[in-house]
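hiii, so i know i said id send this last week but things got crazy w the move. better late than never?? heres the sequnce for the chain we talked about at the cafe, plus the structure i predicted for it. fair warning i was half asleep when i ran it
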Amino acid sequence: MQQWIEWLITAAGAVLVLLTLRDIFHTLWHPSAHGSLSELVIRAIWRAGRRRRRRDHPRAVTGHIALLAVIVTWLALVVLGGALVYVPHMPEAFTFSSGVERERAGFLDALYLSAVTVSTLGFGDVVPAEPWLRLVLPAQSLIGFALLTAAVSWIVLVYPALARRRALAVRLSLTRRTVAHGLLADPDSVLGAIVLRSLASEVVQVRIDLAQYTETYYFRDGPDDSALPATIGIAVDLAAQGQTSPRSDVRLAARMLDDAIDELARVLDDRFLRTGGSRAEVLAAYADAHDHGRDDGG
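okay and structure toks below
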């Protein structure tokens, strides 16, 4: 009976590691980018940030903290899972550098062994004696190396997506000044259609980024002119103005921009806001969630 319990604990540790790996895969590499555990951690930190906001505390670093918290959570679960695999077989399945260490071996020693294995340090003071454990420890070391690589890759992918979103916000702010001079109403200029098509393409890219890298939603942008929640209303106004243009190419480009905004609002509502309201209500909720009053473009 005791042996069955030991192997049950070992199996539980292996399952914990596998579930963590599954969450890493779904967060970083699955097309839907939907990791259950990572999203739970990020949402919890986001809600905590909102509570701090109500007490007039800034929460500009919420996204960065959430990213770090997810990585630390993954690391902790892999270490804990490894410890559960090892602890039932302590000390008889391991060789210790000291006899005293062997007599006192327990969960803390298993946790220590798991941590140094994941970190790829491998001090060598605790060495597996059983053949199957000689395979498990290198496998866990590879998992630790893969986790470090995945964390770096995640950061490398997230920040360009944030830069694209902020660039779109700045461009919308600049475009508002250009349109104020009647660009979309000019029957002789092709620039209006070019501008609107380009903006539609950038809005589509931001929508894809939000679907692929959902964690980018939880990063709060700085000044209003670089914050999409504050400037997206400008795109709405541009699309409306463009559809009244005397030029057919401008009207077509304006409809493309309007459809792109619709898709962006749909992703925002389905994945994050869940208002179930109109596009205007979704965009207003988006602005409020990121501490920006919605800019109406006027």
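btw The two ends are 75 Å apart (CA to CA). thought thatd interest u
miss u guys!!
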